Structure formats: structure tokens, C-alpha cells
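sorry for the late reply, my laptop died twice this morning and i had to redo everyting from scratch. anyway the thing you sent over, i finally got around to it. pasting the sequence first so we're on the same page, its 98 residues, then the predicted structure underneath. double check i copied it right bc i was rushing
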Amino acid sequence: MCDQRQRTVFDLGCDAVDQRCFALVFPKEEFIRNGENGMLVDFFDGDALVDTACTLLEDRMPAARLGAAARQTAVEQYDLATVCLPRQLAWLDEVVCA
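ok and here's the structure:
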């Protein structure tokens, strides 16, 4: 599952720049699709992180497009009323009724 901070950024329709990490935390690719709804850079590439963030700050059109796509992702995949709660209730029904 994605962490709360990332979901909040996407819920607000903000463009996101984040680092890929493959540790015990979730892979960012679960939520961020590089170039579609956010930007991912390699974890140890600080220059790429700075360059990508500066590019989005300087040219707001791609940032706005990424932000709109991020909001769409949040609504389609993580909306509480239409996605998450129905899935949790179905899971509970499955567990309780099994």
C-alpha cells in the first residue's frame, strides 16, 4: 500500500517528484507511473532529483498535467467511498462468512 503522504499529494492534484526505493517500504511504482502522474528518479541520484524538481517548477504545463493525472489516479484507485471501503467490506464478508 502507498503511504499517506503520497496519497495526500495525489488527492490534492499536485505534481510529485520522488525517489525509487526498493527497501522494505512499498515500491513507488505501485502508485507513481513515471512521466504519467508523477516523476521518479533513482534513489541515489540527487542531481536527477534536483533537476527534475527544477524542471517542473520552471515549466508549469507538464506539472499541471502530472498533477491532474495524479488526482485521477487517486480517485480511480484509492477513493474511500467508491474503491477502498467497498473492497474492505468485501474482504470482511469473505473472512467472516468463510
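The radius of gyration is 16 Å.
thats about all i looked at so far, will dig more tmrw
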